[in-house]
Automatic annotation (TrEMBL):
The lineage of its organism: Eukaryota, Fungi, Dikarya, Basidiomycota, Agaricomycotina. Coiled coil: none annotated. InterPro entries: NAD(P)-bd_dom, NAD(P)-bd_dom_sf. Residues 36-196 form the NAD(P)-binding domain. SUPFAM superfamilies: NAD(P)-binding Rossmann-fold domains (SSF51735). This is NAD(P)-binding protein.
Length: 294
């Protein structure tokens, strides 16, 4: 054994062990409500959780999105997957999702992967319609979230949002993040501002523009610190590559509360982190911000 390698690193390089009997039982009784799970990270995470035995509720604007999905339909027919029609931008739809998902017992996890389909404008880079899709949807989720018990919340953000995070980016990525992704990142930064309030964390960045996060937004929520059971996941630039962790275990990517300075990570590997690490080892990640990349 190389005694110069930290013990935690050695553990991460080991193959994934089969779940214990206790883990299997916990997963089989777990209930997850997903916002933004029709594709990408939300979908891949939900797929892994369903395969592990969890029950997953999807709120979808278009319930027909899964009509031809044989795997999800298999879980719908077996009573492990449920589809709730609704739009996360509509407060009443979000409230209904929580009501239906918690009808027969508490929700264990809320997975928030809402995102828009940006369009390119030469003068502005990528723009969203609406420009506050993430932050406005998150406000709706936090306002409707049950208080007793409070579900654990995992949300997808991005690297490069804050000054420190932007400075750690590889030099080749800084222009892209500063110009091309400026407007989508303003929305995600506003979302993180809302989460910092909910989790009771000090906010050290500039306040988001009122055009993204309107003044008085705090009035929609309880007192600061009411939702400390949160995990903010900041992936590197996302790709549609294969899941390296399926072959390499947790060593297939890096996950840290420190800046990584990496280039990319596949959506499937981010989903692996969520389903195989964050959910299964929640106490390690609760109330933190974790960067994920290669």
């Amino acid at each position: 054994m190389d005694h110069g390698v930290p013990f935690e690193t050695i553990l991460d390089r080991l193959p994934l062990s089969p779940p214990t009997q206790l883990q299997t039982h916990i997963l089989s009784t777990m209930k997850v409500l997903v916002f933004g799970g029709s594709k990408n990270i939300g979908y891949y995470s939900a797929e892994r959780l369903l395969d592990s035995g969890a029950t997953v509720y999807f709120q979808l604007r278009r319930p027909s999105a899964f009509d031809e999905d044989e795997k999800i339909q298999k879980y719908v027919k077996s009573g492990k997957a449920f589809i709730i029609q609704g739009d996360a931008l509509k407060a009443e739809d979000v409230q209904r999702a929580f009501t239906e998902a918690s009808a027969d017992g508490p929700i264990d996890f809320v997975l928030f992967t809402v995102g828009g389909a940006p369009t390119f404008k030469l003068s502005k880079g990528m723009v969203l319609d609406p420009p506050d899709i993430c932050s406005a949807s998150m406000l709706n989720v936090l306002a409707a979230m049950p208080r007793d018990p409070v579900p654990k919340l995992i949300l997808i953000s991005s690297i490069g949002l804050t000054k420190t995070s932007h400075e750690s980016l590889p030099a080749l990525l800084k222009p892209m993040y500063g110009y091309l992704l400026q407007h989508p990142h303003e929305d995600k930064l506003a979302m993180e501002r809302v989460i910092a309030y909910a989790a009771g964390r000090e906010w050290k960045e500039e306040e988001p523009s009122a055009s993204i996060l309107p003044e008085g937004w705090q009035s929609r929520l309880p007192e600061a610190g009411f939702q400390k059971r949160t995990l903010v996941v900041r992936p590197a630039f996302l790709t549609d590559g294969k899941c390296k962790a399926d072959k390499e275990g947790n060593a297939g990517y890096r996950a840290s509360d420190q800046e990584l300075g990496g280039y990319t990570v596949s959506r499937r590997d981010v989903a692996h982190f969520i389903a195989e690490q964050a959910v299964k080892d929640w106490e390690k990640y609760e109330n933190s911000i974790i960067n994920v990349g290669y």
